[in-house]
Amino acid sequence: MENIIDIIFSSVNLPLSIFTIILILYWLLTMISGIDFDLDIDVDAGLDANTGLESSNIDFEDVANAEFNEKDVAGNRRMQLKWWQVFLIYFNFVGLPFMFTFTSFVFAWWFITLTVTTITHSYSNSIGFIFMLASFIPALIFTKVFTSPFKGFFKGFNKNGDKAIDFIGRKGTSLSSIEKDKLGNAEFIIDGNPMSVYIKSLNGEKISFREIVLIIKESEDKSFYYAQVYND
Asked: Membrane-spanning residues where (predicted)?
């Protein structure tokens, strides 16, 4: 038993072991207290309209839960995707709750590294660090395979884990200035809670920032909604 603990907290495995413990504590705190640790980042998406992402400041959870079809990456040559966008999309960091995919990846990376360094007795030398870095790729492959079946499960839920809300016919506030084929964000207050969705002008007409909009219909790929300016 002591030998196993020594291997887990050896110089090679220590960083990933600590990271795994932190993630376990994160999930325990989330389940026990219901605390949701929101992270905000600035993302210069530069994606085509079908991706549901735009070049603006967007909530990290929006990135994590955005829907993106594989054909949008390979089938539309007009899109100028950056390498990290393709990376996040392909390995399901986009399209599923981010922390779910991220935890799966870290655990896989830790387990593969732990197994390989234990078998090769390299958990306390420089060769072990090489194995740790090399395990990054198989961990990503495992994450892709493991998380893909969950897409259908999470599709029927919003980012808070509740049943998906029908936004059609609801009024909200545009958080972007959009027109033609440009995508933007709109905020809706539902049961006292602010919720953000991606919108596109129904007829291509300009929708200004902070203008009241009305959701008309959902896109075929369910990645955004068509909206128009609401007039009393």
From this structure: 12-29, 87-112, 127-146
Q: Which two tokens stand for residue 20?
A: 């795994």
Name the DSSP class of 163: B
196: part of which helix (H) or strand (E)? strand 193-201
Which of 30, 154, 156, 22 minimizes the C-alpha distance to 101? 154
Residue ranges covered by each domain of the chain? 4-155, 170-229
User: How much is the pTM?
Assistant: 0.56
Superfamily of domain 170-229: Nucleic acid-binding proteins (2.40.50.140)
Give the bridge partners for 226, in sequence order.
200, 217
User: pLDDT tens across 142-196, in order?
Assistant: 999 999 998 777 766 655 555 567 889 999 999 989 998 898 899 998 877 788 8
Query: Any alpha helices (H) in 9-135, and if so which ranges?
Result: 14-33, 60-65, 70-74, 83-90, 98-120, 126-134
10 Å Cβ neighbour count for 63?
Answer: 19
C-alpha distances in Å from residue 147, one per residue of 67, 101, 176: 14, 7, 32
What are the Cα distances from residue 171, in Å, to 58, 116, 231?
A: 20, 55, 11
Alpha carbon 113 to its chain's center? 25
Q: Do the Cβ atoms of 213 and 173 come closer than 8 Å?
A: yes
Could you give the CA distance from residue 168 to residue 165 in angstroms, rounded to a whole number? 9
What is the rounded distance in angstroms from the CA atom of residue 2 to the CA atom of residue 61? 40
